[in-house]
Structures are given as C-alpha cells and as structure tokens.
Automatic annotation (TrEMBL):
Pfam families: Amidohydro_1 (PF01979). GO terms for molecular function: allantoinase activity; cobalt ion binding; zinc ion binding. It is an enzyme of class 3 (hydrolase). PANTHER family: ALLANTOINASE. It comes from Niastella yeongjuensis. This is allantoinase. Residues 51-427 form the Amidohydrolase-related domain.
Amino acid sequence: MFDLAISGRNICTPEGMREGVVLVHKGIIVDILPNLPAAAISTEIDIGELVLMPGIIDPHVHINEPGRTDWEGFETATRSAAAGGITTLVEMPLNADPVTITADAFDKKAAAAEGQLHVNCGFWGGVVPANTPELEKLISKGVLGFKAFLTHSGIDEFPNVTGSDLHQSIPIIARHHLPLLVHAELTTNVQPPPVNNPQSYKSYLLSRPRQWEDDAIALMIRLCEQYQCRVHIVHLSSAGSIEQIKQARQKGLPVTVETAQHYLYFNAEEIPDAQTAFKCAPPIREKENNEQLWQALQEDTIDFVATDHSPAPPAMKEISSGNLMKAWGGIASLQLALPVLWTAARKRNIPVTRMAQWLCEKPALLPGLQKSKGRIAKGFDADFVVWDPNKQFRVTAEALHHKHKITPYMNQELYGVVEQTWLAGQLIFERGRFPVLNKGKIITP
C-alpha cells in the first residue's frame, strides 16, 4: 500500500535524470521504480515531461518575526516559499525583535512560528559580543548553527563581532560540530572614496570594496584552521576570494561557501541609478567578477546558491528618494529562487541536474539535513517541486506572495514555472492555489 505515486519522464535523482515512478508512504520515499507496481496506491499522478526535483532548501532567509512582521513574517514568507518550490527554510537570527541571541529569544521566535508555517523552517542562532554564555543554551533549544557579522548588521541589537569575540565563541561551536555562518566584510581595513551622489549605483558599489570581503574571508580561514570549526561564508560576491577558498579546501579545512542568485543574474554595469531594489550588502558587482563566480560555482568552489531574502517596507527601501546609501540593504527574491537561477544557467547550457545540486542537495549539508532532505532517493522525505524548465513567465506584483512587492526582478522574463510543491507527500501548492495550509514544521537537529 502506497499513499502516493508520481510518474514522470524527468525525475531528477542523484544519479541523473531518469524515467520512472516515485513511491511514497507516510511522507517518505519508499522506492523509485521503472513502472507502476501492482499494489494499492491512494493517489497516482503523471507529470509527463515536467521535471520532478527534490524540494528546494534555502538556508539563508530573513523572515523578521516576531517584532518586525511588517517587514515580512512567517505566513507570507513560507507561503512565498511554497509557491517557489521551496520546502525547507532556515531563518536568520538578526531581524526579529528580540534578535535570536538568547534561549528566551529562541522560544519567542518558535512560538511566533507555530501555526503559520506552510513549509518547514529551522533557525540559526546569533553570535554577538558577550553572548558566549548563551550559545550552549541555544544549542539545547535546537538551533542548527550560528551566524555572525564582521561588520555592522544594520540592526543595532545584533552588533558585529571582533576577532576576540570569535576566539571565545568558536571553540564552543566547533565542539558541537555546528557551522558558523559569517557575513564576511571587514570595513576597517580600507577607506572607500567619499560618496558625492547617494543615488549613484557606482558610488554605492565603490563604498563596499571587494577587499573588505577578501580580508574578512582570510580571517575566517585562519580561525577555521586554528579551531577546525565548520566555517560557512554567506553570499560571496567578491571573486577575489576564490583562490584563497580553493587553497583552504586543498588543506582539507571545513570551509563552505554560498553565493546568491542576484550576483549571478545581475551585473553592476546594468543597474540604473536610484533603483534601491537592487541594494544589498555585499553589493552586486561587475560582469567580469560575476562570471568568475559562475566559474567557481561550476567548479564546486562555491557550494550552493541561496537567496538571502531580506525584505523591508517601501519607506525603508527609500523607493521614493532613490537614496542607495540610506536604503535598507536586502533583496526580496524567495519565491523566485528557482527561475532566476535557471534562467541564468540555461544561457550557459547548464543542465537541470545542477539545479538540484545547487538548490537542494548541497544546501541540505549546511544545517545537517543531508540524511533526510535534498535528494529523490529511498528513505528521504517526500518533499518535491514539479516544474517546467521550458515555460516562461513575467514577474508581476500580483503573482508574488511576499509581503512587499519590491524586487529587482519585477517585469523580468524568467524561465522555469513551478507547477506543484509537495511537502512530506502532501500537495501544498498547485498552479497558484494552496490546497492545504500550515503543514510546515519547525526543524531541529
């Protein structure tokens, strides 16, 4: 007896694309067979030529609840995720109020999430100066790892750490074999030129030089080697760090790296002035730099791609003024993770199987979910996205489920339409509809 059988000619497995039938029982993949078995099956569907891929995992999302739900919130963020084929999120610690740097704050966030999750959601804890005594309490609560900033986070309650702070916190994190995620910009080493025009994108780009990233990553590689702590560099934008990351890997150091869709899709030369929807930190850099990011991704120096979905209300984004220096630095893109990456990848003749590696299989490793999520294989959770890689659509505000319809992808023509999303063998999204709601769970180790 099986609960679900999905037949198709393009099933994306770790071994490659194959034709067959995926059988599911009690939310788990039981088998993948060439043909339907002679057995009782509650629900049978045939997706034909559409792609069946593991549910997408995005381990870098700012949901901002409790305390800043007017920025996003669990309901809208996880609904957007479901519409985009994302079945698992891990939420960052800094934009909620209180920030997730204590066990008490973790309890408040978990309570806020209850009953609002349309997909699964885990939490990162925060590392800030003087919260070292809270780290093991947060671990006992179920954080999947920790996040630290080497420069101002934008949130005063989440200050950046220094090398001294990291020498205190890293040994604890390393002892528990958890990852330390780092926003890698050291803003004290190089003085950028003065900004004469706050609406100029070039001026904003120059205000956050690549060397800030390169110096910060060099520091984290040294600390990784000293303590053998799992260090993860979030949203890499500087190609200047690729070589030192390669060298760290050659030494066998546990350093991993992500980049974001916007660094692979946009180039600084094409960004108009005063368009604050494009503002993020680190900034979107020049085409030559970003082509090197693509190469590093294809060579597996960059492990995976995550959105860094970081929305804010229109006033904070300075939409009216176009002031790039004052605007909140964050790009809203959660629902568009798959089509944005696929649209850019297909121009490079990159196969669909790489999408599954960059959006599903490899992101599962960071929060320690690789034994249950990110693959279509026996024993794994029946989390799926069914999508059409050949179908094109235009991004409109009406189709987005984010709380604020502000995104640099507005009106872009993208390939890759998500037709269905399945969570633990249940259909949670289908062609604009949400057949069942609130099926997501809080993920802990």
